[in-house]
Amino acid sequence: DNVRDYLDGFGRYTVGGNTQGLAFIKVNQSNPSEQPDIQLVLLPSNNSNGFEQRAYNYNDETYGAIWEKLDPRRSFTIRVVLLHPKSRGTIKLQSTSPYIYPAIDPKFFSDENGEDIETMYQGILAAIELANTTAFKNMNAVLFDATVPQCSVHDRNSREYWYCQIRHLAVPLGHMVGTCKMGLRGSGAVVNYDLRVHGMKRLRVADSSVIPNIVSADPSIASIMIGEKVSELIMG
């Protein structure tokens, strides 16, 4: 049954990343930095028996408008990733008990100038442009209508439509950084350049939470580098 489900594009074995291609592009031309601001990830589509709904807390209406209509055997996904968000969230303790979850407020798309959502919108346009190239047209690729009901009042080609779609569908990718950022004491930083916690003895932080500004990709390798560096510092 698992093999049959996999061949049909369903089931647990279709959930893995299975990245087929990557592109790092810059869409915000008003930013003088040469850093890419969008990552495009080419993935096979899957219908993973409600995984997206459980993981990202989509309501039934939103989930039904997209994944229940999707035929994973005849589709692919271009994931648009915002690489350098300007919005800043918070993480706070709710209790002195280690068994109580902290209060996390990511504050997505809360930056004052609205740069994050505009960059995401430009990234979506870039993904659509890619899908309209001759190579994809030769495969008869067309844009899948994944309109959530709340956005159906907008013209599909308008900025308002895509802003609405982004606000209803965008999800975190899981590569959070900066909750214990490195910097000078008194600047809002948690650790110093040796990754020692300000005001504490014999305590360091050695993971991606110390990165002040996220790198232009999955921070896993950067996190390994941080761990290696701290081990050198501890051993002297």
From TrEMBL:
Gene Ontology MF terms in the entry: flavin adenine dinucleotide binding; oxidoreductase activity, acting on CH-OH group of donors
Superkingdom as given in the UniProt entry: Eukaryota
| Alphabetical list of InterPro entries matching this protein | FAD/NAD-bd_sf, GMC_OxRdtase, GMC_OxRtase_C
Instruction: Extract the signal peptide range.
Output: none
Glucose-methanol-choline oxidoreductase C-terminal domain span: 85-227
The protein's matches in Gene3D superfamilies, at most eight in alphabetical order, are given as: FAD/NAD(P)-binding domain, Glucose Oxidase, domain 3
Family of this protein = Belongs to the GMC oxidoreductase family.
Q: Return the protein name.
A: Glucose-methanol-choline oxidoreductase C-terminal domain-containing protein
What organism does the record attribute this protein to? Photinus pyralis (Common eastern firefly)
Recite the lineage of the species: Eukaryota, Metazoa, Ecdysozoa, Arthropoda, Hexapoda
